[in-house]
Write a structure and sequence with these properties.
Number of domains: 1
Mean pLDDT: 93
Helix content: 40-55%
CATH architecture: 2-Layer Sandwich
Shape: globular
Number of strands: 4
Low-confidence stretches: none
Strand content: 25-35%
Structural class: alpha+beta
Length: 84
């Protein structure tokens, strides 16, 4: 399992908190670019500085697959780059 993610209702889930809305929105934009490149798009929501992401493979019957773990790992890598 990718670090920081938990499996909930057949999805990988993680909650992210940022300093403010702009930082949260920048993160979502970067995740969007990664998701588009992988052709695997998250279910997510944003409220001010909080972003919640759920990953599941819709075409596999809304279950967690290797594609979800790959995207979760890429998101973790993005956070590592941001915090470096």
């Amino acid at each position: 399992m990718s670090i920081g993610w938990v499996e909930v209702n057949n999805s990988l889930f993680r909650k992210f908190e940022f300093a403010n809305f702009v930082a949260a929105f920048e993160f979502m934009t970067k995740v969007g670019v990664i998701a588009e490149a992988q052709d695997h798009h998250p279910d997510w929501c944003n409220s001010y500085n909080v972003v919640k992401i759920s990953l599941s493979s819709h075409d596999a019957g809304h279950t967690v697959t290797a594609r979800d773990h790959k995207l979760a790992s890429a998101i973790n890598d993005l956070l590592s780059e941001t915090n470096s």
